[in-house]
Amino acid sequence: MPVESLPEFTKAARQRWESIPAEIRQRLLANVWCGCCGHETTITNFGGSIKGSDLLLVGKCAECHGDVARVIEGA
Ligand SMILES: [Zn+2]
After folding, report:
1. What is the distance in A from the centroid of ligand 1 to the CA of 34?
2. What does pTM read for this prediction?
3. Cβ of 24: how many Cβ atoms within 10 Å?
């Protein structure tokens, strides 16, 4: 993954994200729906925050660089 700007995570969101096994994180990042591309894509340059009990990742589509987001439901 290219290093662009530093992704912004809240402290709680980073802790939640880092508690997820790496291979699952990879899978979560690689199947984010992009409404602009109309198919699943990879999220890049993302940050995270906690919404209720869910982890919300917000970043850019690897293909069109449009805004994409993914909710990871709280365990
Ligand atoms: Zn896209």
Report:
1. 5
2. 0.84
3. 10
pLDDT in tens, 10-63: 999 999 999 999 999 999 999 999 999 999 999 999 999 999 999 999 999 999
Please tell me the distance between residue 21's alpha carbon and the centre of ligand 1 in angstroms. 26
Cα 72–chain centre separation: 9
Cα(50) to ligand 1 centroid in Å equals: 24
Q: What is the pLDDT of residue 63?
A: 97
Ligand 1 centre from 49 Cα, in Å?
Answer: 21
DSSP string, the chain: ----SPPPB-HHHHHHHHTS-HHHHHHHHH-EEETTTTEEE-EEEEEEEEETTEEEEEEEETTT--EEEEEE---
Distance 15 CA to ligand 1 centre (A): 27
